[in-house]
Amino acid sequence: MISGHALISRLAPLLACLGLLGVWQVAALILSTDSFPTALEALRAIPSILGDKESLINILASIRRMAIGFGVAIMVSIPLGLMMGRSRGVASFFNPLLMVTYPVPKAALMPIIMLWLGVGEVAKILVIFLGVSLPVIYHSFQGAKAVEEKMLWSGAAMGLSALQRMTRIVLPAALPEILTGCRTGLVLALITMVTSEMIARQSGAGNILFNSLDMGQYDTVYAMIIIIGAMGIGLDAAFEKLRSRLVRWSEPGFDIPLSFA
Amino acid sequence: MIEIDRVSHVFQTSGRQNHLALSEISLTIENGAFVSILGPSGCGKSTLLYIVGGFVNPTGGIAKMKGKAIAGPGPDRGPVFQEFALFPWKSVLGNVMYGPRQQGVKHAEAEAQSRRLIEMVGLRGFEHFYPKELSGGMKQRVALARTLAYHPAVLLMDEPFGALDAHTRTRLQNDLLNIWERDRKTVLFVTHSVDEAVFLSDKVVVMTRSPGRIKQVVNINLPRPRRRAELLLDPRYQKYVVEIERMIDDTSEDELQP
Question: Between chain A's N and C termini, which has fewer beta carbons within 10 Å?
Answer without folding.
Answer: N
